[in-house]
């Protein structure tokens, strides 16, 4: 049975991670090779499983493997079992495929790092956790993977934790993710309380009978979870700081895989969102806000990795938007997720390659004219660039165009609003990505004299090249005969398929999108090619630019709304605890001690005073008796 | 002679003894004052016996003497021991129980 192989997808990288973590310095020589091999064999297994699935008819493709009975209480049973269906295989191939490429890249990128073995151990841990996340057949199994990737992300962001700011960035990501995790655990609890099951299949069966209120509550909680993991509004602030991690981590975790877990969660829960229009509307709103939010932030970033991070946030906004558009959108969300996995991971690796050649400089104002020195990086990054801004026939064109079209056709004022947001976002994307290209690769050199830019070794550029090929052809392949849409149909298709009237014919939408993209490019060219670029960011800028530079005040807002009131609440509670509760306890004690010490003063230790007291006492008794008997 | 005068004398002696116990520091003097108080009480007992015309008070006076004799034995032994260990017979010096 091929389904028995599913567990090896997870077991191989998990075992390798354990070996690398436990074997210590001895493994330094071969640790990176073991890590890469583990990831590659996981990819091999998934490719084999994929071919097996292809051989089956569409309705028999999903396979499950029961590992063991996890929780068995009365009528409530949760098995630790894995589900490999059309949706999870997309993720499994992406995770292990891109993951393996990034392992190969890291061998060279991290070769000067003393802790390379530990790095590979964490990468393998991440791969295992992420695979568990997408392979779990119930929300509870998914939750284990969900927490696992959070842990791996924390460990890898803070990999260079000798720098306090990096350690803080890791903590920030972890804490903000926990807020989202709370949403997921609440969703699981609500599902269990109202339906008595937590498995996908069970909830899918029970969902039609459940009340809309329940489903909306679950949907909103799932949306919070997705927002936390996928850096969506309002839990988006951690992603920019997460760039503190090594660049391969940013490429794998914070561009291609982990941050897309939220989109996976929403797509996987399609049976809940399809039945809860309010939750679905919120998903769309969150997606639309985030795609603009990220794109606007991206326009003002001088740090190449942070510009790409803002772009990731924006692109995941597109996916969330698509996933919120119901049955028609899920497949497009996954398509954009896969193409984004190629081109964004490729561009992050390109950024890493540039940093590698530039003494880890990340400020794009210190780059310039690198095209001549790093031709391969320039070409691969450039292909990713063409893909992300949506130039046909590159991958992003197909996937983004589908999302824009679906948004426009959502119907009524909602469709027009969402469509224009998506179109405007596309223009902004074109602007800031062109800016990144111009600042990095063209113009005059602005780097310091001690930088010696050079092309990266083959272990680094080969993964970049493969990802670049993916960014070129994947969109074309996915849309041939609606291949991906039909592939995913058994998982996400709704029963009552509703047809929207098309607001505009697809060719017109593509035309408008392309025009807006070209406008974005030309504005960027006018601003950054025609004018000289300063190597420090100009200070005399408008208030708007200043706000955008501060990430649209997201940290200030979080601090003002949550952190400071939280601190004030904590301080008040501490004061209450110290003054009232401790005060009462200490007061009782102090009273006992005080009265004791007052009474002690009568115990002078002088025999005379005791005898005098006895005398006075006796006299008082006699007097009392005399008074009474009178 | 009026019996009440014995009671006045007894009260006077008792008061002298009590004041002596309270204000004197020398353990021996304090001890003597205690004896004085006991004997003042004895005098009262004997006087009341005489006034009431029975022997109850006289009997109690004998008991008091026996108790006083015992008390002298124990008390003097304590005083001598304290003097040996502390080189002082002052009652104020023996205040270790204060702490």
Would you give an account of this structure?
The complex is a heterodimer of chains A (630) and B (99). With 630 residues, chain A is mostly helical. Chain A contains 24 helices and 2 strands. In chain A, strands 1-2 form a two-stranded antiparallel sheet. In chain A, helix 2 runs antiparallel to helix 3 and helix 16 packs antiparallel against helix 18. The model of chain A has no long low-confidence stretch (mean pLDDT 88). Chain B is mainly α and 99 residues long. In chain B, helix 1 (4-23) packs antiparallel against helix 2 (27-52) and helix 2 (27-52) runs antiparallel to helix 3 (56-86). The longest helix of chain B is centred in the last third of the chain and has 31 residues, at 56-86.
Helix/strand layout:
The complex is a heterodimer of chains A (about 625) and B (about 100).
Chain A: H1 6-23, H2 31-55, E1 63-73, E2 76-84, H3 86-109, H4 116-135, H5 139-157, H6 164-195, H7 200-206, H8 212-229, H9 238-241, H10 247-256, H11 261-268, H12 270-273, H13 277-298, H14 304-324, H15 327-357, H16 375-389, H17 395-408, H18 412-441, H19 458-479, H20 483-492, H21 506-528, H22 543-549, H23 554-600, H24 607-629
Chain B: H1 4-23, H2 27-52, H3 56-86
* Biggest interface pair, counts: A-B, 9 and 15 residues
By DSSP, the count of extended strands of chain A is 2
Low-pLDDT segments, ≥5 res of chain B: none
Secondary-structure-derived class of chain A: mainly alpha
Summarize the structure.
The complex is a heterodimer of chains A (630) and B (99). Chain A has 630 residues and is mainly α. Chain A has 24 helices and two strands.
Characteristics of this structure?
heterodimer, A: 630 residues, mainly alpha, two-stranded antiparallel ribbon, 72% helix, B: 99 residues, 78% helix, elongated
């Amino acid at each position: 049975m091929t389904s028995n192989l599913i567990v090896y997808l997870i077991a191989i990288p998990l075992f390798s991670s354990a070996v690398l973590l436990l074997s210590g310095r001895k493994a330094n020589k071969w640790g990176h090779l073991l890590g890469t091999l583990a990831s590659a064999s996981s990819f091999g297994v998934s490719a084999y499983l994929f071919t097996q699935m292809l051989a089956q008819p569409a309705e028999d493709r999903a396979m499950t493997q029961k590992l063991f009975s996890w929780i068995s209480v009365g009528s409530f049973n949760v098995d630790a079992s894995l589900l490999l269906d059309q949706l999870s295989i997309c993720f499994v191939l992406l995770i292990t495929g891109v993951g393996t490429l990034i392992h190969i890249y890291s061998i060279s990128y991290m070769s000067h790092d003393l802790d390379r073995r530990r790095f590979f151990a964490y990468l393998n841990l991440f791969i295992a956790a992420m695979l568990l996340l997408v392979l779990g057949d119930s929300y509870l199994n998914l939750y284990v993977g969900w927490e696992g990737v959070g842990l791996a992300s924390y460990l890898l962001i803070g990999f260079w934790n000798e720098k306090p700011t990096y350690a803080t960035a890791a903590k920030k990501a972890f804490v903000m993710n926990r807020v989202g995790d709370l949403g997921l655990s609440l969703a699981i609890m609500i599902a269990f309380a109202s339906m008595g099951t937590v498995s996908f299949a069970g909830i899918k069966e029970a969902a039609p009978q459940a009340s809309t209120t329940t489903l909306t509550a679950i949907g909103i909680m799932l949306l919070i979870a997705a927002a936390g993991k996928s850096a969506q509004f309002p839990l988006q602030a951690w992603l920019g700081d997460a760039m503190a991690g090594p660049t391969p981590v940013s490429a794998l975790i914070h561009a291609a895989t982990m941050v897309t877990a939220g989109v996976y969660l929403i797509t996987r829960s399609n049976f809940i969102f399809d039945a809860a229009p309010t939750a679905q509307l919120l998903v769309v709103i969150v997606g639309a806000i985030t795609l603009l939010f990220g794109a606007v932030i991206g326009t003002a970033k001088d740090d190449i990795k942070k510009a790409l991070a803002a772009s990731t946030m924006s692109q995941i906004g597109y996916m969330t938007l698509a996933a919120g558009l119901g049955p028609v959108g899920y497949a497009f969300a996954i398509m954009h997720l896969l193409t984004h996995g190629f081109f964004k991971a490729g561009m992050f690796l390109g950024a890493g390659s540039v940093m590698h050649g530039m003494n880890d400089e990340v400020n794009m104002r210190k780059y310039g004219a690198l095209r001549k020195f790093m031709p391969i990086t320039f070409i691969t990054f450039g292909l990713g660039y063409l893909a992300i801004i949506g130039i046909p026939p590159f991958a992003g064109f197909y996937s983004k165009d589908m999302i824009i079209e679906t948004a426009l056709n959502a119907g009524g004022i909602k469709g027009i609003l969402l469509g224009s947001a998506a179109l405007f976002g596309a223009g902004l994307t074109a602007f800031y990505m062109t800016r990144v290209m111009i600042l990095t690769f063209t113009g005059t050199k602005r780097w310091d004299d001690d930088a010696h830019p050079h092309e990266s070794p083959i272990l680094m550029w080969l993964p970049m090249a493969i990802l670049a090929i993916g960014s070129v052809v994947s969109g074309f392949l996915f849309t041939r005969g609606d291949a991906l849409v039909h592939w995913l149909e058994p998982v996400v298709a709704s029963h009552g398929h509703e047809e929207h009237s098309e607001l505009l014919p697809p060719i017109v939408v593509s035309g408008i999108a392309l025009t807006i993209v070209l406008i974005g490019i030309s504005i960027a060219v006018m601003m950054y090619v025609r004018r000289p670029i300063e190597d420090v960011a100009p200070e005399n800028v408008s208030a708007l630019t200043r706000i955008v530079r501060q990430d649209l005040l997201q940290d200030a807002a979080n601090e003002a709304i949550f952190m400071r009131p939280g601190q004030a609440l904590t301080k008040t509670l501490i004061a209450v605890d110290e003054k009232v509760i401790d005060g009462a306890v200490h007061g009782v004690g102090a009273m006992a001690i005080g009265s004791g010490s007052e009474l002690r003063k009568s115990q002078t230790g002088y025999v005379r005073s005791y005898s005098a007291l006895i005398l006075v006492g006796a006299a008082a008794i006699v007097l009392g008796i005399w008074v009474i008997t009178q | 002679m009026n019996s009440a005068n014995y009671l006045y004398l007894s009260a006077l002696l008792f008061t002298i003894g009590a004041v002596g116990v309270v204000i004197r520091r020398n353990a021996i003097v304090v001890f003597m004052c205690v004896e004085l108080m006991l004997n003042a009480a004895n005098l009262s007992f004997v006087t009341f016996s005489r006034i009431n015309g029975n022997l109850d008070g006289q009997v109690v006076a004998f008991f008091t003497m026996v108790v006083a004799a015992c008390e002298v034995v124990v008390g003097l032994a304590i005083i001598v021991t304290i003097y040996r260990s502390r080189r002082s017979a002052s009652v104020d010096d023996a205040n270790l129980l204060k702490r």
